Amino acid sequence: LLNATTRRDWKGNVTGVVGVGQDITALNQVLAESKRVADDLTRLIETANAPIFGIDTHGQVTEWNAKASGLLGYTKDEALGEHLVQRFITEEFKASVSEVLESALIGKETANFEFPMFTKFGDRRDILLNATTRRGPNDEVTGVIGVGQDISQIREITKEQERVADDLSRLIESANAPIFGVDLNGMVTEWNQKAAEISGYPKQETMGRNLVQDFIQPDYRMSVSDVLQNALAGNETANFEFVLKSKHGDTFSVLLNATTRRDGKGNVTGVVGVGQDITELNQVLAESKRVADDLTRRS
């Protein structure tokens, strides 16, 4: 890098030139490396498989990558220079998104902020956003970079799972069979209407109480406890018969299927018992046996 200066004699006549140079080889290498890194980052932003946008300190869009264009339908040229919040955020979420961006502009970054954006064609997209402060070479704040994740499909799956869970809860509650649930400690967690009807104990009187100790006849406590413990170990039982005594002293014969209850990761969380009141069936069978025995004796 050269500075060329005219050389003069004492009368002011030009006598030559003095050149003062500077070796900037290392500087050029640093600048070239900086440009390469900047180009790499630009390409990374542009081609990332996540919507990325950037704004300046006034909230105007400065970055809008290919994924953001594909997701929302607005091209980069349509987005650049537009006010992000005013142009692309729905009225309901303008205040909260503005707060996130303004916080990032003073160095307070936000992770996993969820909000909806609507496409150019009116379709809703649920976005999970990480807002990061963008800084210049002197560490001055120059804007915000937002890296998003389209979680619309996850939201749809979650809503469907919630709908199915609600349907199952209603099915359990209204089923024409006594259904109960216990946790790992044998405490009641489910007690449907039919169980309440047969036992005489309303749901609020059973929740959190020990099923075996509080609701099973002493003669059957050990065998029922074994069935529940086996189910907690993953060994389910079908058609186990035991006697249930109601709150009012009546006894009922119940045929039980004990099923292991698991969470979303497959961990055992308890047992669900689906029963069948076979009291009348047993009475019919007993009467049939009595009649058969009578006929046998008479013959």
Task: Give the arrangement of secondary structure elements.
Layout: E1 2-8, E2 14-21, H1 25-47, E3 52-56, E4 61-64, H2 66-72, H3 76-79, H4 84-88, H5 91-105, E5 110-118, E6 124-135, E7 141-150, H6 152-174, E8 179-183, E9 188-191, H7 193-199, H8 203-206, H9 211-215, H10 218-232, E10 237-245, E11 251-262, E12 268-277, H11 279-298
Antiparallel strand pairs: 1-2, 3-4, 3-7, 5-6, 6-7, 8-9, 8-12, 10-11, 11-12
Structure, explained:
- With 299 residues, this protein is an alpha+beta fold.
- It is 43% helix and 32% strand.
- It is built from 11 helices and 12 strands.
- The protein has a 5-stranded antiparallel β-sheet with strand order 4-3-7-6-5, with helices on both faces. The protein has a 5-stranded antiparallel β-sheet with strand order 9-8-12-11-10, with helices on both faces.
- A hairpin with a 5-residue loop joins strand 10 (237-245) and strand 11 (251-262).
- The longest helix is centred in the N-terminal third of the chain and has 23 residues, at 25-47.
- The model has no long low-confidence stretch (mean pLDDT 87).
